[in-house]
Amino acid sequence: MSAAPPDVDPLVARFLERRDEDAFRALYRRHAAGLYGLLLRLTGGRASEADEGMQETWVRAIRGLERFEGRSTLSTWLAGIAVRWWREESRRRAREAPLPDEELLPPVPALRREIDRVDLERALGLLPGGYREAILLHDVHGYTHEEIAAMTAVEPGTSKSQLSRARSALRAHLAGGKA
User: Is residue 153 part of a domain?
Assistant: First the structure.
């Protein structure tokens, strides 16, 4: 078994030292809801894909936990794994999916001025993946640009500019236009 760095969460250390199942369960309970919420939003509300992402994120986390150095919080580290999984999955699906016939695509309903949660979720789903990630990670989940940069392997300035563009695109979608 591997020893954890001294400043790492005691549950992480206990899991690494003894592969303690109770420690894993406690870590899972602590982080599952936030992680699932992130995955659900990344997948555009598709629960089956979020479930798949949740499973894959935890499998990757357990395999890589020995490399967790505690430079970020465990929730930030887990969110990074989830974001990377979603990016890989999106690229894989894009390669495999046939191009849709535009006539078969459902029309996007005009969005009202007074938006509700459904409208916001729909507008988020219309954003390109990188923009959706920027808004979800920063505005919804509260990560700093430095944490987002670490998760997504970009510079903090890139994270800031993506967020700015994402907010503009979201405003355009919510106003009924296209970004």
Answer: yes
Task: Name the token pair of 3.
Answer: 């020893």
Same domain, 34 and 69: yes
CB of 70 within 8 A of CB of 7?
yes
DSSP letter for each residue of 54-100? HHHHHHHHHHHGGG--SSS-HHHHHHHHHHHHHHHHHHHHHHHSPPP
Domain of 9, in residue numbers: 1-99
90 and 6 housed in the same domain = yes
pLDDT digits (tens, 9 = 90+) for 115-140: 356 667 777 788 887 888 888 888 88
74, 68 Cβ separation under 8 angstroms = yes
Closest CA to 37 of 51, 56, 23, 58: 51
Residues 118 and 76 occupy one common structural domain: no
The verdict on 68 and 124 lying in the same domain is no
Answer whether 53's CB lies under 8 Å from 39's CB: yes
What is the C-alpha separation between 137 and 113, in angstroms, rounded?
Answer: 25
24-37 pLDDT, tens per residue? 999 999 999 999 99
